[in-house]
């Protein structure tokens, strides 16, 4: 992107005029006809496997196919596989959508009506653009909730930006951080492909650091130092570090001690921390509670810049379709705060329903509120089911021959490692596949209807093979999914042995 | 952006390692610390004037200020200034948000209940990600509605992409079209600053073509040819043309004949047409009905690529806060369709409420449906008020000394031209303002509380001065707004005469 600034000079030195476009060709055309960086984007979570799954789904039911339905384990989309929404959340959202509903006594509980009134007083409703940064009242309430979460560490509502999902916030920060093709950002391997896709489109360098699979996907500071030195040796100006905690696709939860080491490293090396914390409510190990990077940075008094991300799509709400997210920036220049405002203002504001959903996630009903009992029951059930399924699925996967799978301490995924026979690796290469795990996943889909994502879509150590699967199908189906995976796995291993 | 592809080579030829970052400085910092193209974005609709208005609003009520409230005429945000939402729309959206509501007889009319059921059958509800391109049923219904609108011209649902507002669609197409800093797109002057902001951030060349103010802001083919030749002479590869119809900020509606000339020009020169048609329902001149570029392109049999944009934010719904938009692509390569899918898939999907709102806008209740009578009454009232206000406001502005204002044939704006005294121009220059219309607008805001946007934010002929104002305040306030503008205008002219 440094070339953007050279445009005037570049044009001035061109002597001849550009000929008219060739009318026999499309303007937007494969190859030279589209922006190369955009064309190079890859996003496996909705890639080849999913398109094939959707094509198969259209043929169902079919006597030619050995399964009755597609089981989508490719994406953390809980409500698409049967998880119910939280009643309180939907009642408030319906009330602000159609305010005449709260005028009738008894349609909604009293605390729902109060929440609806508060939002309507603080805004022009869901049909008007809000401030570009998000409704002020909601940012204030999010700030208070974060302070409570972080044991009193102060939060400024002006540093909070409400966005269409966390993705928009991540892209906004990366678009500012990456100045040209010599700028790099440290990104975990394996990673959530939003980061690689965004870096590809902004033309920066992905500087991968490997998570340590043999030690529960832990984050090793020696590895960070090694990869940083390597990148600098190649002339890359490394400006930030992405950390996903709880991990996606790996499911690990960082210890406080490990986080302190990461913060100290970033402070010493002057790196912006981008902390993807969208799975903060999906933690299943009591001995490793979620701690925010904000809390660690502030309690250490570290002098570094931090952006953290959160979303209504995950947690126990799982409200993916609302596209509600937010970002908090910490220790950033006032200028940067204003620049983010400006960038977001070009799209006017994020959708208001998503903004309100963020408020409901951060400040849920409290004991004594009319909605509390039902809310608590629903949340407890969803959380309990997620935790049970995480354990059942990793236990099940570990019984497959040649498969090892770290337990999921958090998030919604498992990333089992599969030992593939040489014949399968050869077959995948012969068919021009990016990795042999693509072959494995395609054959799994075609044999069982289960759609998972090849590990190569998230990057992995050279010569290793994985896949990412969610554990989101309903509790009573999980056993069947595992049994189905086992039958396929055994057949696949025999076929290629 | 061509430099993106040079990264490997560029890095390989750098001999020395990059030093560590300077720990005494912020990483993201004004000047060299952020991406220059992003920093250069300008977006006047939410710029300096609006920030000043918001600061004033926080001081109200105040005896020091000569007005009681801020009148926001800076942005087409109808529901923020009193326009009511359409009952039918909000009932369906509340129903899909909280499906238990439709189980109780009598809460909603029967056709609302049926619409809710249809959406729930065709999707996993508002809480699940949909297909990246948008829910298939909704794309099919949009396609049918477009066919009806365009007198039978066929539409393929696979060419429709549902997005978070039209802005996301516009940015997606431009990001693919602009390959490097030598690529340009023809953009009207004056224009809606989304286009300039997006071109700035993608590093392409804005090739401005002037609309003819003296002829009702018409679009002149000679002007297009002249600007295209000029740009090619400078080495710019011009690849597309943006046309906003009805116009923003100008309010003109193109005649069919004029559109045919534009299409023929773009076909001859092999330019992609980007047709911003978000104001297609805001047409106030019976003798100039809205015609879509899709219809003209197809009926002429023109061999060119077209992307057209629509939104729920405008029209009579004015549902800005829902962020619902869509794009149709016509005559594009299958590869391009797949590339758009891939780009959008990185953000997973647009918000589902916005998707459903698009469906409701395109296929509203029909005569005989239980909701039709109320729907028709509400729509007729809103439309009638918009038309009356458009006339009242342009008539009023034309009575100001030295002000000329083309009537608004469509959209939600007027773009009056103001003749500013030399002393005002000198004063603005002395205060470092980008244009003297900034001075005019700031003084108007401080004297009246009315917030409009300087013409320089939309670009304009050198040496001319304008401002953009909406005509959205309630009908009973419009007279007061005009009177207030007149008092200010007279004082401003005396002050600087």
From TrEMBL, chains A, B:
Instruction: Give the UniProt record's GO annotations in the biological process aspect.
Output: L-alanine catabolic process
Task: Please report the stretch or stretches of sequence annotated as the Aminotransferase class I/classII large domain.
Answer: 109-476
Q: Which organism is it from?
A: Gloiopeltis furcata
| Protein's name in the database | Alanine transaminase
The record's keywords, sorted A to Z, are: Aminotransferase, Pyridoxal phosphate, Transferase
Q: Does the keyword Magnesium apply?
A: no
Q: Which domain of life is it from?
A: Eukaryota
Q: What subunit structure does UniProt give?
A: Homodimer.
Tagged with keyword Translocase: no
Q: Which gene encodes it?
A: alt
Sequence similarity: Belongs to the class-I pyridoxal-phosphate-dependent aminotransferase family. Alanine aminotransferase subfamily.
Q: Could you state a single Gene Ontology molecular function term?
A: pyridoxal phosphate binding
């Amino acid at each position: 992107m440094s070339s953007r600034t050279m445009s005037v000079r570049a044009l001035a030195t061109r002597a001849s005029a550009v000929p008219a476009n060739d009318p026999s060709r499309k303007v937007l055309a494969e190859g030279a006809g589209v922006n190369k960086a955009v064309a190079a984007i890859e996003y496996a979570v909705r890639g080849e496997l999913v398109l094939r799954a959707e094509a198969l789904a259209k043929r169902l039911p079919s006597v030619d196919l050995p399964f009755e339905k597609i089981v989508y384990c490719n994406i953390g989309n809980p409500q698409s596989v049967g998880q119910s929404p939280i009643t309180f959340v939907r009642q408030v959202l319906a009330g602000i959508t159609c305010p005449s509903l709260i005028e009738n006594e008894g349609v909604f509980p009293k605390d729902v009506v109060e929440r609806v009134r508060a939002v309507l007083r603080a805004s022009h409703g869901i049909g008007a653009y809000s401030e570009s940064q998000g409704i002020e009242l909601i940012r204030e309430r999010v700030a208070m909730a974060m302070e409570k979460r972080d044991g009193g560490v102060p939060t400024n509502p002006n540093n909070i930006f409400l966005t269409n999902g966390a993705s928009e916030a991540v892209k906004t920060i990366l678009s500012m951080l990456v100045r040209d093709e010599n700028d790099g950002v440290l990104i975990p391997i394996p990673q959530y492909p939003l980061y690689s896709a965004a870096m590809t489109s902004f033309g920066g360098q992905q500087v991968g650091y490997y998570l340590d699979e043999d030690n529960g996907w832990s984050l090793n500071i020696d590895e960070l130092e090694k990869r940083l030195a390597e990148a600098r040796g190649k002339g890359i100006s490394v400006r930030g570090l992405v950390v996903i905690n709880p991990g996606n696709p790996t499911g690990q939860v960082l210890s406080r001690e490990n986080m302190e080491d990461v913060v100290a490293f970033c402070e010493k090396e002057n790196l912006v921390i981008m902390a993807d914390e969208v799975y903060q409510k999906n933690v299943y190990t009591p001995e490793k509670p979620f701690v925010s990077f904000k809390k660690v940075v502030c309690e250490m008094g570290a002098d570094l810049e931090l952006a953290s991300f959160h979303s209504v799509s995950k947690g126990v709400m799982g409200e993916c379709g609302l596209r509600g997210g937010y970002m908090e920036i910490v220790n950033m220049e006032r200028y940067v705060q204003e620049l983010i405002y400006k960038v977001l203002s070009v799209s006017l504001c994020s959708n208001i329903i998503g903004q309100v959903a963020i408020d409901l996630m951060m400040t849920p009903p409290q004991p004594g509120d009319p909605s509390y009992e039902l809310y608590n029951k629903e949340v407890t059930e969803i959380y309990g089911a997620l935790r049970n399924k995480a354990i059942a699925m990793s236990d099940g996967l570990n019984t497959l021959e040649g498969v090892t799978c770290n337990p999921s301490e958090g998030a919604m995924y498992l990333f089992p490692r599969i030992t593939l026979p040489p014949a399968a690796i050869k077959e995948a290469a012969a068919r021009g596949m990016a990795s042999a795990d693509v072959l494995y996943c395609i054959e799994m889909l075609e044999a069982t209807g289960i759609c998972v994502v090849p590990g190569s879509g998230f990057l992995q150590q050279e010569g290793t093979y994985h896949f990412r699967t969610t554990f989101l199908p309903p509790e009573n189906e999980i056993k069947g999914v595992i049994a189905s995976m086992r039958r396929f796995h055994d057949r696949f291993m025999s076929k290629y042995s």
